[in-house]
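Work Package 4 report. The design task specified in the project plan requires that, given a folded chain encoded as structure tokens, an amino acid be chosen for each position. We show below one input record used in the internal validation round.
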């Protein structure tokens, strides 16, 4: 049986306060934002690359929203298409660094579709990852 991947989180003394805010409600449809980072994470034994995007709501409140791609990179995966749409040229057999890609894509403007999804925990704005388009 595999052990769960856990991390200890310690608050920094300089920045240990978190603001209590209203839930982010983005309308269904097209939005624009800025990529802030990419991060590779393992959740429930699956490997993902998460893309974090800063976006303004209708009241000009800034939020960070994320979407995840399975970390498999083959010519027909959404992660491969996302990376190629960013201008990267990928060749079979090469390796890519998510940290280096994050540094390259940080600050890039993107558009994307949002769909609000109702779950037992509430309503959440979901970025449809296959709709992310880089703005020129």
């Amino acid at each position: 049986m595999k052990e769960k991947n856990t991390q200890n989180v310690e608050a920094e003394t300089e920045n240990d306060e978190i603001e209590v805010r209203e839930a982010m409600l983005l309308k269904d449809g097209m939005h624009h934002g800025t990529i802030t980072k990419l991060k590779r994470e393992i959740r429930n034994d699956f490997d993902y690359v998460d893309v974090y995007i800063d976006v303004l709501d209708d009241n000009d409140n800034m939020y960070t929203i994320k979407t995840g791609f399975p970390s498999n990179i083959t010519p027909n995966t959404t992660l491969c298409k996302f990376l190629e749409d960013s201008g990267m040229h990928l060749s079979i057999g090469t390796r890519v660094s998510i940290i280096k890609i994050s540094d390259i894509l940080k600050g890039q403007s993107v558009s994307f579709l949002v769909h609000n999804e109702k779950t037992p925990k509430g309503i959440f704005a979901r970025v449809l990852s296959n709709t992310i388009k880089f703005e020129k």
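Helices lie at 78-85, 98-105. Validation will be extended to a larger panel in the next phase.
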